[in-house]
Amino acid sequence: MLKPHATATRDLINLDGIWDFKVDFANEGMAAGWAKGQLDTKLDIAVPSSFNDLFTDVAIREHVGWVWYQRKVRVPRGWNGEQIFVRVDAATHSGVVFVNGNKVAEHVGGYMPFQADITSHATAGSEILLTIAVSNVLTNETVPPGRVVTRDNGVQQQTYLHDFYNYAGLARSVWLYSVPAVHVTDVTVVTDFDGTTGSVSYQVELSGSADVAVVLKDESGAVVATGNGASGTLSVPNVKLWQPGNAYLYQLVAQAHQGSDVVDEYSVNVGVRTVRVVGNQFLINNEPFYFTGFGMHEDHVVKGKGHDNAFLVNDFELLKWVGANSFRTSHYPYAEEVMDYADRHGIVVIDETAAVGFNQNFASMFGGEKFPTYGPETANEKTQANLLQAVRELITRDKNHPSVVMWSITNEAETGIPEAVDFFKPAFELARQLDSRPVTYINVMTEPFNKCLVAPLADVICLNRYWGWYEDHSDLANAQLHFEGELTGWTEKYSVPFVITEYGADTLAGGHSIHNLPWSEEYQSQYLDMNHSVFDKFPAIVGEQVWNFADFQTKPGIFRVLGNKKGAFTRDRQPKAAAHTLRARWTKLNNRKPQA
Q1: Cα dihedral 236, 238, 239, 240 in deg (nearest 10)
Q2: Which CATH architecture has domain 11-179?
Q3: d(Cα 453, Cα 494) in Å, to the nearest integer?
Q4: Where are the alpha helices (DSSP H) in 115-156?
Q5: Any catalytic annotation for residue 265?
Q6: pLDDT score at 594
Q7: Where are the domains positioned within the chain?
Q8: Is 486 tagged catalytic?
Q9: Residue 545 carries which DSSP code?
């Protein structure tokens, strides 16, 4: 699904702002037809934002079920004869869209966009009543999974097995846009280069019959290549490559022609670069690349997972300051604005689905009854179908981003049993059918090299490891011994690159100890130093991404102190000592790993 933007043939209206808001405490809104008229409410809400932390009423924060958004929208009078769409960038975790009381779209999957053609419900120059119902419910069939339980007091509670708060609502933008009747519906680009000559292979899909022409422009706007037909390959002389830390973006303009008339045009940014795995090396533009950076979260005070461009710019400035060249979209796809920004600034991305929590071994940590991870009542065939949908939607949305160098299928799933292979293998296969980038998964500490059965499916193996925190807690010397032993096992068994995608220690900002006690800033820094000394001994380790970029909110629990405190930065983005430790190391690495 193409991200909408204004062109010579398309118009776009952003619907962010204050909407009417109503919490469906009795889950009656659908049956009662709330969308058919004005919501009976005195509550307002900001879009985009998560609803949970905006209000002082704890019942709203902990609500399980539907919430309703509504506003009136005037359709521009110049849109007569155009197709009109409403697009929701994300509704966590499912959404239903109504126009003038008519259901026009519904979608399950909280981090992907969806849209509806509302031409038959909208008249140019008139107002429409736009209503969006959003449910935060997670079940055994959703991605991520969860379970709704009823407590002894009769109140419903959402349980889940992932370690971040279940923020919900319209956390990303809502749009109204117009396109001609015959228009571009999809564009796919694949790039390569040979010496100083680049190539851009393209494929354009249309909603109707028209001729297609494409133009490739450089950053100055000069035309460097042209082509005709819905598919083809453009040759780019004296190509400027998209490189980590040094991004260069061409612009591919696809035009639909009927005779001499341009009936539609759409443009995509193109970064010419290659990504390959050769032996235990990860190559970008045929050069070894070493990942430095973080697992991150879309998480901020008040807004929750609500996207904010000011926060986006600040986070990327901190990434640059600390010397990070990459991040993982842990544990769900991020807003498209984040991906666009990574493209423009040369930040490398491991792009992950929302398949986190497929591990019932975490039930003891997060509370609740333990079930088999895979089975009729947990991750079943319908769950697998939703995972495949998540993979398909992720790659369809993000396939043209040069910053994206890997697809991550799942985070910390139980992978040491045959059922895991049956469940995840189709997702790996689908990712390879849809795109040529390497495919990975994130291995959890309880599934070591002599147990994990999913590792052979991956082009790159990513490890989350907490030696010195969850294991060998406060004993860094012993932790180093055990970590080196485990990595020896992994690297001897598999001849692939490895990325350490999580390592970290909870730290209270301002907490200090001359005795290097856990939770102090000193311990966090020395913990990182120990891990780095281990990484540098293994040539197959091609990256290190600290958990986490910043402290973030989790659901309440006795082992979390007002959230997860493993951030190198506090939740309001102030550096802990660890940030300076990382900066001292990463600014010297320059995308290359020191030799053992």
Answers
A1: -150
A2: Sandwich (2.60)
A3: 12
A4: none
A5: no
A6: 54
A7: 11-179, 184-270, 275-589
A8: no
A9: E
In CATH, which of 3.90.1150.30, 3.40.50.300, 3.20.20.80, 3.30.1360.10 is domain 275-589?
3.20.20.80
Give the model confidence (pLDDT) of 218-261 as tens digits: 999 999 999 999 999 999 999 999 999 999 999 999 999 999 89
What are 349's two structure tokens?
């991305």
CA distances from residue 15 to 36, 203, 207 in whole angstroms, order as listed: 20, 31, 25
Q: Which two tokens stand for residue 72?
A: 């009136």
Third-level CATH fold of 184-270:
Immunoglobulin-like (2.60.40)
Helix (H) or strand (E) holding 430: helix 418-434
Tokens of 393: 């939607």
Q: Would you say residue 595 has pLDDT above 60?
A: no
- The one catalytic residue among 265, 502, 521, 544: 502
Measured distance CA(536)–CA(529) in Å, rounded: 11
Q: What is the mean pLDDT of residues 345-350?
A: 98
Cα–Cα distance measured from residue 554 to residue 558, given in angstroms and rounded to the nearest whole number: 11
Dist CA 405 CA 439 (whole Å): 9
| Single-letter residue type at 328 | R
Q: Integer distance in angstroms from the first to the last C-alpha of the chain?
A: 45
Structure tokens at 184: 């571009």
Q: How far apart are CA 566 and CA 568, in angstroms?
A: 7
Contact between 468 and 476 under an 8 Å Cβ cutoff? The reply is yes
Cα dihedral sign for 150, 151, 152, 153? negative
Q: Cα torsion at 552, 557, 562, 566 (round to 10°)?
A: -50
- The overall pTM is greater than 0.85: yes
Summarize pLDDT for 515-555 with one digit per residue, the tens: 989 999 999 999 999 999 999 999 999 999 999 999 999 98
Give the strand pairing for 83-88 and 174-179.
Answer: antiparallel
Size of the chain in residues = 596
pLDDT of residue 444: 97
Question: pLDDT tens digits for 358-396?
Answer: 999 887 676 667 888 999 999 999 999 999 999 999 999
| CA 587 to chain CA centroid, nearest Å | 26
Q: Kindly tell me the sign of the dihedral angle through the C-alpha atoms of 398, 399, 405, 407.
A: positive
The first and second tokens of residue 479, run together, are 């932790």
Does residue 170 register a pLDDT over 90? yes
- Choosing from 141, 265, 352, 412, which is the catalytic residue? 412
Q: How far apart are CA 36 and CA 83, in angstroms?
A: 23
Torsion angle of C-alpha atoms 497, 502, 504, 509, degrees rounded to 10: 130
Same fold, 11-179 and 184-270: no
